[in-house]
Amino acid sequence: MINKYLLISAGIIVSAGIFVSVVLGFTGPSVSPGTGSGFFVTSGGNTGLGITPLYTFDVSGGFRVGNATSTAGLVFDPGTGNVGIGTVSPASKLMINGIIESTLGGFKLVANASAPFTCNASNAGSLSLTSGYTTCACNGTGWVKTSDGITACVW
Question: Distance between CA atoms of 137 and 144, rounded to whole angstroms?
Answer without folding.
Answer: 5
